[in-house]
Protein backbone atom coordinates (compact mmCIF):
# COMPACT_ATOMS: atom_id res chain seq x y z
CA UNK A 1 0.00 0.00 0.00
CA UNK A 2 1.38 3.26 -0.91
CA UNK A 3 1.53 6.13 1.56
CA UNK A 4 -0.33 8.37 -0.82
CA UNK A 5 -3.48 6.54 0.05
CA UNK A 6 -3.29 8.12 3.49
CA UNK A 7 -3.10 11.64 2.11
CA UNK A 8 -6.48 13.33 1.86
CA UNK A 9 -7.36 14.11 -1.67
CA UNK A 10 -7.82 17.82 -1.00
CA UNK A 11 -4.23 18.02 0.26
CA UNK A 12 -2.66 16.79 -2.89
CA UNK A 13 -2.85 19.98 -4.95
CA UNK A 14 -1.69 22.03 -1.96
CA UNK A 15 1.27 19.72 -1.38
CA UNK A 16 2.21 19.98 -5.07
CA UNK A 17 2.15 23.77 -5.02
CA UNK A 18 4.25 23.73 -1.87
CA UNK A 19 6.79 21.47 -3.52
CA UNK A 20 6.75 23.59 -6.64
CA UNK A 21 7.17 26.70 -4.51
CA UNK A 22 10.35 25.26 -3.13
CA UNK A 23 11.60 23.71 -6.33
CA UNK A 24 11.13 26.61 -8.70
CA UNK A 25 13.26 29.13 -6.77
CA UNK A 26 15.87 26.43 -6.26
CA UNK A 27 15.97 25.68 -9.96
CA UNK A 28 16.09 29.36 -10.81
CA UNK A 29 18.93 29.81 -8.34
CA UNK A 30 20.80 26.87 -9.84
CA UNK A 31 20.39 28.19 -13.37
CA UNK A 32 21.42 31.65 -12.24
CA UNK A 33 24.51 30.23 -10.60
CA UNK A 34 25.44 28.30 -13.70
CA UNK A 35 25.00 31.43 -15.91
CA UNK A 36 26.67 33.79 -13.47
CA UNK A 37 29.97 35.30 -14.51
CA UNK A 38 32.88 33.28 -13.26
CA UNK A 39 35.70 35.22 -11.71
CA UNK A 40 39.03 33.91 -12.83
CA UNK A 41 42.44 34.57 -11.30
CA UNK A 42 45.65 33.80 -13.16
CA UNK A 43 49.31 34.35 -12.34
CA UNK A 44 52.27 34.55 -14.71
CA UNK A 45 55.93 34.76 -13.69
CA UNK A 46 57.76 37.32 -15.82
CA UNK A 47 61.25 38.75 -16.21
CA UNK A 48 62.23 42.43 -16.34
CA UNK A 49 60.31 44.72 -18.74
CA UNK A 50 57.45 42.34 -19.56
CA UNK A 51 54.89 43.28 -22.19
CA UNK A 52 51.21 42.90 -21.38
CA UNK A 53 48.63 43.20 -24.14
CA UNK A 54 44.92 43.42 -23.42
CA UNK A 55 42.16 43.28 -26.03
CA UNK A 56 38.71 43.74 -24.61
CA UNK A 57 35.55 45.02 -26.33
CA UNK A 58 33.88 46.49 -23.27
CA UNK A 59 34.51 46.70 -19.55
CA UNK A 60 36.51 48.22 -16.74
CA UNK A 61 40.22 47.59 -16.90
CA UNK A 62 42.21 48.50 -13.81
CA UNK A 63 45.96 48.04 -13.91
CA UNK A 64 48.20 48.64 -10.92
CA UNK A 65 51.90 48.16 -10.43
CA UNK A 66 53.31 46.03 -7.67
CA UNK A 67 56.76 44.91 -6.62
CA UNK A 68 56.41 41.25 -7.61
CA UNK A 69 57.92 39.84 -10.81
CA UNK A 70 54.56 38.47 -11.66
CA UNK A 71 51.46 39.42 -13.57
CA UNK A 72 48.16 38.72 -11.86
CA UNK A 73 44.97 38.87 -13.86
CA UNK A 74 41.56 38.77 -12.25
CA UNK A 75 38.87 38.74 -14.91
CA UNK A 76 35.13 38.84 -14.53
CA UNK A 77 33.18 38.18 -17.74
CA UNK A 78 29.64 39.51 -17.85
CA UNK A 79 28.26 36.23 -19.13
CA UNK A 80 29.20 32.65 -19.76
CA UNK A 81 28.93 33.28 -23.49
CA UNK A 82 32.36 34.85 -23.55
CA UNK A 83 35.72 33.69 -22.36
CA UNK A 84 38.87 35.44 -21.23
CA UNK A 85 42.05 34.00 -22.66
CA UNK A 86 45.35 34.81 -21.01
CA UNK A 87 48.52 33.21 -22.23
CA UNK A 88 52.21 33.79 -21.82
CA UNK A 89 54.66 33.85 -24.71
CA UNK A 90 58.14 34.38 -23.31
CA UNK A 91 58.09 37.66 -21.47
CA UNK A 92 54.79 38.72 -22.97
CA UNK A 93 51.35 38.07 -21.54
CA UNK A 94 48.41 38.38 -23.94
CA UNK A 95 44.94 38.82 -22.56
CA UNK A 96 41.89 38.82 -24.79
CA UNK A 97 38.16 38.43 -24.53
CA UNK A 98 36.51 36.20 -27.07
CA UNK A 99 32.98 35.08 -27.76
CA UNK A 100 32.11 31.40 -27.42
CA UNK A 101 29.33 31.43 -29.99
CA UNK A 102 28.47 33.43 -33.07
CA UNK A 103 25.42 35.11 -31.62
CA UNK A 104 26.59 36.85 -28.48
CA UNK A 105 24.57 39.92 -27.54
CA UNK A 106 26.63 43.12 -27.28
CA UNK A 107 25.75 43.43 -23.57
CA UNK A 108 27.26 40.04 -22.94
CA UNK A 109 30.53 41.02 -24.63
CA UNK A 110 31.82 42.66 -21.50
CA UNK A 111 34.55 41.69 -19.11
CA UNK A 112 36.09 43.57 -16.20
CA UNK A 113 39.74 43.18 -15.29
CA UNK A 114 41.91 43.83 -12.28
CA UNK A 115 45.51 43.41 -13.27
CA UNK A 116 48.70 43.73 -11.30
CA UNK A 117 51.97 44.10 -13.17
CA UNK A 118 55.62 44.81 -12.33
CA UNK A 119 56.48 48.51 -12.29
CA UNK A 120 58.61 48.31 -15.44
CA UNK A 121 55.90 46.59 -17.51
CA UNK A 122 54.96 47.80 -20.97
CA UNK A 123 51.23 47.93 -21.61
CA UNK A 124 49.21 47.75 -24.81
CA UNK A 125 45.51 48.09 -24.11
CA UNK A 126 42.56 48.09 -26.51
CA UNK A 127 39.19 48.61 -24.87
CA UNK A 128 36.35 50.02 -26.95
CA UNK A 129 33.91 50.91 -24.19
CA UNK A 130 33.99 51.12 -20.41
CA UNK A 131 37.07 52.56 -18.77
CA UNK A 132 40.82 52.05 -18.53
CA UNK A 133 42.65 52.99 -15.38
CA UNK A 134 46.40 52.56 -14.89
CA UNK A 135 48.43 53.54 -11.85
CA UNK A 136 52.14 53.56 -11.03
CA UNK A 137 53.29 51.74 -14.14
CA UNK A 138 56.62 53.11 -15.32
CA UNK A 139 56.99 51.36 -18.68
CA UNK A 140 55.79 52.52 -22.08
CA UNK A 141 52.07 52.45 -22.64
CA UNK A 142 49.72 52.43 -25.60
CA UNK A 143 46.01 52.73 -24.92
CA UNK A 144 43.37 52.80 -27.64
CA UNK A 145 39.65 53.11 -27.04
CA UNK A 146 36.49 54.27 -28.78
CA UNK A 147 34.14 55.43 -26.04
CA UNK A 148 36.10 54.32 -23.00
CA UNK A 149 37.73 56.91 -20.79
CA UNK A 150 41.41 56.58 -19.93
CA UNK A 151 42.87 57.51 -16.53
CA UNK A 152 46.60 57.33 -15.99
CA UNK A 153 48.29 58.11 -12.70
CA UNK A 154 51.98 58.32 -11.88
CA UNK A 155 52.96 56.89 -15.23
CA UNK A 156 56.26 57.53 -16.93
CA UNK A 157 57.72 56.32 -20.18
CA UNK A 158 56.32 56.88 -23.61
CA UNK A 159 52.56 57.18 -23.22
CA UNK A 160 50.36 57.14 -26.29
CA UNK A 161 46.61 57.38 -25.88
CA UNK A 162 44.10 57.40 -28.69
CA UNK A 163 40.36 57.61 -28.17
CA UNK A 164 37.41 58.49 -30.37
CA UNK A 165 35.06 59.93 -27.77
CA UNK A 166 36.61 58.81 -24.51
CA UNK A 167 38.11 61.33 -22.11
CA UNK A 168 41.74 61.19 -21.01
CA UNK A 169 43.09 62.17 -17.63
CA UNK A 170 46.79 62.02 -16.82
CA UNK A 171 47.81 62.79 -13.24
CA UNK A 172 51.40 63.18 -12.11
CA UNK A 173 52.65 61.64 -15.33
CA UNK A 174 56.21 62.10 -16.52
CA UNK A 175 57.98 61.19 -19.72
CA UNK A 176 56.57 61.61 -23.17
CA UNK A 177 52.82 61.94 -23.72
CA UNK A 178 50.99 61.79 -27.03
CA UNK A 179 47.21 61.83 -26.95
CA UNK A 180 44.62 62.20 -29.66
CA UNK A 181 40.85 62.10 -29.76
CA UNK A 182 37.90 63.47 -31.67
CA UNK A 183 35.51 64.51 -28.93
CA UNK A 184 37.30 63.43 -25.77
CA UNK A 185 38.30 65.96 -23.12
CA UNK A 186 41.89 65.95 -21.89
CA UNK A 187 42.97 66.77 -18.36
CA UNK A 188 46.71 66.84 -17.88
CA UNK A 189 47.32 67.53 -14.22
CA UNK A 190 50.50 67.92 -12.17
CA UNK A 191 52.57 66.73 -15.08
CA UNK A 192 56.34 66.52 -15.17
CA UNK A 193 56.63 65.65 -18.84
CA UNK A 194 59.23 67.02 -21.21
CA UNK A 195 57.13 66.30 -24.28
CA UNK A 196 53.38 66.63 -24.53
CA UNK A 197 51.42 66.42 -27.76
CA UNK A 198 47.66 66.54 -27.30
CA UNK A 199 45.10 66.91 -30.05
CA UNK A 200 41.33 66.64 -29.80
CA UNK A 201 38.74 68.05 -32.17
CA UNK A 202 35.75 69.10 -30.11
CA UNK A 203 37.13 68.33 -26.68
CA UNK A 204 38.67 70.65 -24.10
CA UNK A 205 42.31 70.48 -23.08
CA UNK A 206 43.44 71.47 -19.61
CA UNK A 207 47.17 71.53 -18.90
CA UNK A 208 48.19 72.19 -15.34
CA UNK A 209 51.75 71.03 -14.90
CA UNK A 210 55.40 71.98 -15.04
CA UNK A 211 57.00 73.37 -18.16
CA UNK A 212 60.38 71.65 -18.02
CA UNK A 213 63.44 73.30 -19.59
CA UNK A 214 63.76 72.23 -23.24
CA UNK A 215 60.34 70.64 -23.01
CA UNK A 216 57.86 70.96 -25.87
CA UNK A 217 54.15 71.24 -25.29
CA UNK A 218 51.81 71.16 -28.24
CA UNK A 219 48.09 71.45 -27.59
CA UNK A 220 45.65 71.57 -30.45
CA UNK A 221 41.90 71.34 -30.92
CA UNK A 222 39.24 72.42 -33.33
CA UNK A 223 36.64 73.84 -30.99
CA UNK A 224 36.39 73.75 -27.21
CA UNK A 225 38.74 75.35 -24.72
CA UNK A 226 42.49 74.99 -24.40
CA UNK A 227 43.69 76.13 -21.01
CA UNK A 228 47.18 76.20 -19.57
CA UNK A 229 48.13 77.31 -16.06
CA UNK A 230 51.52 78.84 -15.34
CA UNK A 231 53.48 79.86 -12.24
CA UNK A 232 55.65 82.99 -11.88
CA UNK A 233 58.79 80.82 -11.93
CA UNK A 234 57.96 79.06 -15.20
CA UNK A 235 60.03 79.77 -18.28
CA UNK A 236 58.59 79.32 -21.75
CA UNK A 237 58.32 80.54 -25.27
CA UNK A 238 54.64 80.70 -26.20
CA UNK A 239 52.67 80.60 -29.41
CA UNK A 240 48.86 80.66 -29.27
CA UNK A 241 46.65 80.89 -32.33
CA UNK A 242 42.90 80.59 -32.64
CA UNK A 243 41.68 81.07 -36.18
CA UNK A 244 38.17 82.13 -35.27
CA UNK A 245 38.18 82.06 -31.47
CA UNK A 246 39.68 84.11 -28.66
CA UNK A 247 43.05 84.05 -26.95
CA UNK A 248 42.98 85.18 -23.31
CA UNK A 249 46.34 85.72 -21.69
CA UNK A 250 47.45 86.56 -18.14
CA UNK A 251 51.17 86.08 -18.74
CA UNK A 252 53.46 89.09 -19.19
CA UNK A 253 55.18 88.13 -22.37
CA UNK A 254 58.12 89.82 -23.98
CA UNK A 255 57.95 90.02 -27.76
CA UNK A 256 59.97 87.54 -29.78
CA UNK A 257 63.55 88.86 -30.25
CA UNK A 258 63.58 88.26 -33.95
CA UNK A 259 61.14 87.61 -36.75
CA UNK A 260 59.95 84.05 -36.90
CA UNK A 261 60.01 82.01 -40.06
CA UNK A 262 56.30 81.41 -39.84
CA UNK A 263 53.91 84.00 -38.56
CA UNK A 264 50.22 83.24 -39.11
CA UNK A 265 48.35 86.02 -40.82
CA UNK A 266 44.92 84.76 -39.84
CA UNK A 267 42.97 84.63 -36.63
CA UNK A 268 43.97 85.73 -33.17
CA UNK A 269 47.58 84.98 -32.47
CA UNK A 270 49.85 85.62 -29.55
CA UNK A 271 53.60 85.12 -29.42
CA UNK A 272 56.07 85.89 -26.71
CA UNK A 273 58.53 84.75 -24.10
CA UNK A 274 57.94 84.31 -20.41
CA UNK A 275 61.11 84.59 -18.32
CA UNK A 276 63.96 82.91 -20.21
CA UNK A 277 61.79 80.98 -22.62
CA UNK A 278 63.26 77.57 -21.84
CA UNK A 279 60.23 75.49 -22.71
CA UNK A 280 58.24 75.77 -25.89
CA UNK A 281 54.44 75.91 -25.81
CA UNK A 282 52.29 75.84 -28.94
CA UNK A 283 48.53 76.08 -28.76
CA UNK A 284 46.32 76.07 -31.82
CA UNK A 285 42.57 76.11 -32.22
CA UNK A 286 40.21 76.63 -35.12
CA UNK A 287 37.30 78.35 -33.39
CA UNK A 288 37.94 77.45 -29.77
CA UNK A 289 39.11 79.65 -26.92
CA UNK A 290 42.67 79.58 -25.63
CA UNK A 291 43.25 80.59 -22.01
CA UNK A 292 46.70 81.21 -20.55
CA UNK A 293 46.01 81.67 -16.87
CA UNK A 294 47.97 82.10 -13.66
CA UNK A 295 48.06 79.05 -11.46
CA UNK A 296 46.12 79.51 -8.23
CA UNK B 1 68.24 69.30 -60.31
CA UNK B 2 64.82 67.69 -60.56
CA UNK B 3 63.78 66.69 -64.05
CA UNK B 4 60.22 65.63 -63.39
CA UNK B 5 57.34 67.32 -61.57
CA UNK B 6 55.50 66.14 -58.47
CA UNK B 7 52.52 65.06 -60.52
CA UNK B 8 54.73 63.13 -62.90
CA UNK B 9 56.41 61.52 -59.95
CA UNK B 10 53.11 59.95 -58.89
CA UNK B 11 53.12 57.86 -62.04
CA UNK B 12 56.53 56.54 -60.99
CA UNK B 13 55.40 55.79 -57.44
CA UNK B 14 54.40 52.21 -58.11
CA UNK B 15 57.69 51.21 -59.75
CA UNK B 16 59.53 53.15 -57.07
CA UNK B 17 57.93 51.04 -54.34
CA UNK B 18 58.86 47.95 -56.35
CA UNK B 19 62.47 49.05 -56.44
CA UNK B 20 62.63 50.51 -59.97
CA UNK B 21 64.21 53.92 -59.53
CA UNK B 22 65.41 55.78 -62.57
CA UNK B 23 67.91 58.61 -62.26
CA UNK B 24 65.30 61.24 -63.14
CA UNK B 25 63.01 60.06 -60.41
CA UNK B 26 65.80 59.76 -57.89
CA UNK B 27 66.88 63.28 -58.70
CA UNK B 28 63.37 64.55 -58.11
CA UNK B 29 63.04 62.74 -54.80
CA UNK B 30 66.38 64.14 -53.62
CA UNK B 31 65.19 67.67 -54.17
CA UNK B 32 61.48 67.44 -53.34
CA UNK B 33 60.52 67.29 -49.69
CA UNK B 34 56.86 66.63 -50.47
CA UNK B 35 57.46 63.52 -52.58
CA UNK B 36 60.04 62.30 -50.09
CA UNK B 37 57.39 62.66 -47.43
CA UNK B 38 54.91 60.63 -49.50
CA UNK B 39 57.47 57.85 -49.93
CA UNK B 40 58.24 57.85 -46.23
CA UNK B 41 54.56 57.61 -45.41
CA UNK B 42 54.07 54.66 -47.75
CA UNK B 43 57.16 52.94 -46.42
CA UNK B 44 55.90 53.45 -42.91
CA UNK B 45 52.53 51.96 -43.84
CA UNK B 46 54.35 49.05 -45.46
CA UNK B 47 56.41 48.54 -42.37
CA UNK B 48 53.37 48.68 -40.08
CA UNK B 49 51.50 46.35 -42.38
CA UNK B 50 54.01 43.58 -41.83
CA UNK B 51 53.01 43.34 -38.21
CA UNK B 52 49.30 43.16 -38.71
CA UNK B 53 47.18 40.07 -38.35
CA UNK B 54 46.40 38.39 -41.66
CA UNK B 55 43.60 36.22 -40.32
CA UNK B 56 40.89 38.87 -40.40
CA UNK B 57 38.08 38.55 -42.87
CA UNK B 58 38.02 40.39 -46.16
CA UNK B 59 35.85 43.35 -47.02
CA UNK B 60 33.50 42.93 -49.96
CA UNK B 61 35.20 42.63 -53.32
CA UNK B 62 33.47 45.77 -54.58
CA UNK B 63 35.36 47.85 -52.02
CA UNK B 64 38.68 46.72 -53.41
CA UNK B 65 37.57 47.00 -56.96
CA UNK B 66 36.56 50.60 -56.36
CA UNK B 67 39.75 51.40 -54.48
CA UNK B 68 41.91 49.96 -57.20
CA UNK B 69 39.98 51.84 -59.90
CA UNK B 70 40.27 55.04 -57.93
CA UNK B 71 44.01 54.58 -57.60
CA UNK B 72 44.30 54.00 -61.32
CA UNK B 73 42.15 56.98 -62.17
CA UNK B 74 44.31 59.17 -59.99
CA UNK B 75 47.37 57.78 -61.67
CA UNK B 76 48.81 56.46 -58.43
CA UNK B 77 49.10 53.00 -59.92
CA UNK B 78 48.93 51.63 -63.41
CA UNK B 79 45.95 49.68 -64.65
CA UNK B 80 46.62 45.96 -64.71
CA UNK B 81 43.14 44.55 -64.59
CA UNK B 82 42.10 43.06 -67.94
CA UNK B 83 38.29 42.86 -67.80
CA UNK B 84 35.48 42.75 -65.32
CA UNK B 85 34.43 39.36 -66.56
CA UNK B 86 37.59 37.56 -65.69
CA UNK B 87 36.96 35.03 -63.01
CA UNK B 88 40.35 35.54 -61.44
CA UNK B 89 39.85 39.20 -60.98
CA UNK B 90 39.83 39.00 -57.21
CA UNK B 91 43.30 37.50 -57.26
CA UNK B 92 44.48 39.95 -59.86
CA UNK B 93 43.41 42.79 -57.61
CA UNK B 94 45.77 41.54 -55.00
CA UNK B 95 48.61 41.06 -57.41
CA UNK B 96 51.20 43.64 -58.30
CA UNK B 97 52.46 46.53 -56.28
CA UNK B 98 49.22 47.20 -54.45
CA UNK B 99 49.22 43.77 -52.88
CA UNK B 100 52.98 43.46 -52.85
CA UNK B 101 53.12 46.51 -50.70
CA UNK B 102 50.86 44.87 -48.14
CA UNK B 103 51.47 41.14 -48.51
CA UNK B 104 49.92 40.04 -45.22
CA UNK B 105 47.42 42.77 -44.76
CA UNK B 106 43.70 42.12 -44.23
CA UNK B 107 41.61 44.18 -46.57
CA UNK B 108 39.69 46.29 -44.05
CA UNK B 109 42.98 47.42 -42.60
CA UNK B 110 44.34 47.99 -46.08
CA UNK B 111 41.34 50.18 -46.82
CA UNK B 112 42.27 52.35 -43.89
CA UNK B 113 45.90 52.42 -44.90
CA UNK B 114 44.85 53.41 -48.38
CA UNK B 115 42.66 56.22 -47.10
CA UNK B 116 45.49 57.44 -44.92
CA UNK B 117 47.87 57.28 -47.86
CA UNK B 118 45.38 59.15 -49.98
CA UNK B 119 45.21 61.93 -47.42
CA UNK B 120 49.01 62.04 -47.31
CA UNK B 121 49.21 62.26 -51.10
CA UNK B 122 46.55 64.96 -51.19
CA UNK B 123 48.45 66.89 -48.57
CA UNK B 124 51.68 66.47 -50.49
CA UNK B 125 50.01 67.71 -53.65
CA UNK B 126 48.86 70.78 -51.79
CA UNK B 127 52.48 71.75 -51.10
CA UNK B 128 53.41 73.14 -54.51
CA UNK B 129 50.00 74.78 -54.61
CA UNK B 130 50.90 76.72 -51.45
CA UNK B 131 53.41 78.72 -53.38
CA UNK B 132 50.94 80.08 -55.84
CA UNK B 133 49.82 83.62 -55.43
CA UNK B 134 46.56 83.68 -57.25
CA UNK B 135 43.64 82.91 -54.96
CA UNK B 136 41.63 81.14 -57.62
CA UNK B 137 44.56 78.87 -58.20
CA UNK B 138 44.86 78.24 -54.49
CA UNK B 139 41.24 77.25 -54.33
CA UNK B 140 41.50 75.12 -57.43
CA UNK B 141 44.60 73.47 -56.05
CA UNK B 142 42.82 72.63 -52.84
CA UNK B 143 39.83 71.27 -54.71
CA UNK B 144 42.05 69.16 -56.94
CA UNK B 145 43.66 67.56 -53.95
CA UNK B 146 40.52 67.19 -51.83
CA UNK B 147 37.75 66.31 -54.29
CA UNK B 148 38.85 62.73 -54.95
CA UNK B 149 39.64 62.39 -51.30
CA UNK B 150 36.17 63.52 -50.31
CA UNK B 151 34.54 61.20 -52.84
CA UNK B 152 36.66 58.29 -51.68
CA UNK B 153 35.88 58.91 -48.04
CA UNK B 154 32.17 59.15 -48.78
CA UNK B 155 32.37 55.85 -50.58
CA UNK B 156 34.22 54.27 -47.68
CA UNK B 157 31.68 55.74 -45.29
CA UNK B 158 28.82 53.90 -46.98
CA UNK B 159 30.62 50.60 -46.51
CA UNK B 160 31.70 51.36 -42.98
CA UNK B 161 28.16 52.18 -41.92
CA UNK B 162 26.99 48.75 -42.97
CA UNK B 163 29.75 47.19 -40.89
CA UNK B 164 29.42 49.11 -37.69
CA UNK B 165 25.69 48.57 -37.24
CA UNK B 166 26.58 45.06 -36.06
CA UNK B 167 28.85 46.37 -33.37
CA UNK B 168 28.26 47.21 -29.70
CA UNK B 169 25.52 49.93 -29.59
CA UNK B 170 27.59 52.18 -27.33
CA UNK B 171 30.61 51.89 -29.57
CA UNK B 172 28.55 52.24 -32.73
CA UNK B 173 26.82 55.34 -31.34
CA UNK B 174 30.14 56.89 -30.39
CA UNK B 175 31.63 56.20 -33.81
CA UNK B 176 28.62 57.66 -35.61
CA UNK B 177 28.47 60.67 -33.32
CA UNK B 178 32.14 61.42 -33.85
CA UNK B 179 31.86 60.87 -37.56
CA UNK B 180 29.16 63.53 -37.59
CA UNK B 181 31.48 65.86 -35.68
CA UNK B 182 34.28 65.32 -38.18
CA UNK B 183 31.91 65.77 -41.12
CA UNK B 184 30.76 69.04 -39.62
CA UNK B 185 34.38 70.19 -39.25
CA UNK B 186 35.14 69.22 -42.80
CA UNK B 187 32.20 71.33 -43.98
CA UNK B 188 33.29 74.30 -41.85
CA UNK B 189 36.91 74.01 -42.96
CA UNK B 190 35.89 73.78 -46.61
CA UNK B 191 33.80 76.90 -46.17
CA UNK B 192 36.72 78.64 -44.51
CA UNK B 193 39.14 77.57 -47.23
CA UNK B 194 36.77 78.72 -49.96
CA UNK B 195 36.48 82.10 -48.24
CA UNK B 196 40.22 82.44 -47.65
CA UNK B 197 41.96 80.12 -50.10
CA UNK B 198 45.43 81.16 -48.96
CA UNK B 199 44.76 80.49 -45.30
CA UNK B 200 47.26 77.74 -44.48
CA UNK B 201 45.83 77.16 -41.02
CA UNK B 202 42.35 76.44 -42.39
CA UNK B 203 43.86 74.18 -45.04
CA UNK B 204 45.83 72.29 -42.42
CA UNK B 205 42.70 71.81 -40.36
CA UNK B 206 40.84 70.62 -43.44
CA UNK B 207 43.45 67.98 -44.23
CA UNK B 208 43.58 66.89 -40.63
CA UNK B 209 39.81 66.54 -40.58
CA UNK B 210 40.06 64.30 -43.65
CA UNK B 211 42.76 62.29 -41.92
CA UNK B 212 40.54 61.91 -38.88
CA UNK B 213 37.67 60.76 -41.03
CA UNK B 214 39.89 58.19 -42.71
CA UNK B 215 41.04 56.90 -39.32
CA UNK B 216 37.49 56.80 -38.05
CA UNK B 217 36.19 54.90 -41.08
CA UNK B 218 39.01 52.41 -40.67
CA UNK B 219 38.00 51.87 -37.07
CA UNK B 220 34.36 51.48 -38.03
CA UNK B 221 35.23 48.88 -40.62
CA UNK B 222 37.47 47.01 -38.20
CA UNK B 223 34.88 47.06 -35.42
CA UNK B 224 32.28 45.73 -37.83
CA UNK B 225 34.63 42.98 -38.92
CA UNK B 226 35.32 41.97 -35.34
CA UNK B 227 31.71 41.22 -34.57
CA UNK B 228 31.01 39.16 -37.65
Account of the 3D structure:
The complex is a heterodimer of chains A (296) and B (228). Chain A has 296 residues and is mainly beta. Chain A has a domain at 167-294. Helices cover 8% and strands 52% of the residues of chain A. Chain A contains 1 helix and 22 strands. Chain A has a 22-stranded mixed beta sheet that branches. In chain A, strand 4 and strand 5 form a beta hairpin. Chain A is elongated and about 65 Å long. With 228 residues, chain B is mainly α. Chain B has one domain (6-226). Chain B is 75% helix and 0% strand. Chain B has 11 helices and no strands. Chain B has helices at residues 6-11, 13-17, 23-31, 33-50, 61-73, 89-94, 96-101, 107-130, 135-164, 169-195, 200-226. In chain B, helix 4 packs antiparallel against helix 8 (107-130) and helix 10 (169-195) runs antiparallel to helix 11 (200-226). The N and C termini of chain B lie far apart (53 Å). Chain A binds chain B through residues 57-58, 106, 109, 128-129, 146-147, 164-165, 182-183, 201-202, 222, 241, 243-244, 264, 266-267, 284, 286-287, and chain B through 167-171, 173-175, 177-178, 181-182, 185, 188-189, 192, 196, 199-202, 205, 209, 212, 216, 219, 223, 226-227.
Provide the descriptors you would attach to this structure in a database record.
A: 296 residues, mainly beta, 1 helix, 22 strands, elongated, disordered N terminus, B: 228 residues, mainly alpha, 11 helices
Structural class of chain A: mainly beta
Q: What is the total tally of β strands of chain B?
A: 0
Uncertain spans of chain A: 1-15, 27-34
Structural class of chain B: mainly alpha
User: How much helicity do the residues of chain A have?
Assistant: under 10%
Rg for CA atoms of chain B: 18 Å
Q: What does the largest sheet of chain B look like?
A: none
Instruction: Categorize the overall geometry of chain B.
Output: globular
**Number of separate helices of chain B:** 11
% residues in beta strands of chain A: over 45%
Low-confidence stretches of chain B: 79-105, 128-132
Terminus-to-terminus distance of chain B: 53 Å
**Tally the helices of chain A: what do you get?**
1
- The oligomeric status of these chains comes to heterodimer
Content of β-strand of chain B: under 5%
Task: Spell out the helices and strands of chain B N to C.
Answer: HHHHHHHHHHH
Task: Tell me the helix content of chain B.
Answer: over 70%
Amino acid sequence: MSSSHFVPAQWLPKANWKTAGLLVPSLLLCSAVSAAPHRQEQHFKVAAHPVITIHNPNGLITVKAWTKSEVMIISTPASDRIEVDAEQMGNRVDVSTRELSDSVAPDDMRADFQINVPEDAELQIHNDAGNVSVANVLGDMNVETVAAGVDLEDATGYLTVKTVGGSFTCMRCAGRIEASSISGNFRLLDLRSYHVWAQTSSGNILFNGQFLPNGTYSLKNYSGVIEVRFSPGDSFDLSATSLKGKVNNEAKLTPPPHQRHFMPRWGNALFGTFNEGRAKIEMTSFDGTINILKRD
Amino acid sequence: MATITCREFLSYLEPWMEGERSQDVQAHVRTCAHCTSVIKDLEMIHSEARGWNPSEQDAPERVWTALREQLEQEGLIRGTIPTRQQAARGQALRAGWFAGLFPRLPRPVLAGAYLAALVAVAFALSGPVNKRVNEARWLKGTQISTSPLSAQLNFAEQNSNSYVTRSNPVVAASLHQNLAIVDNYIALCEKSVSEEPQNEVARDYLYEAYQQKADLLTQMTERGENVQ
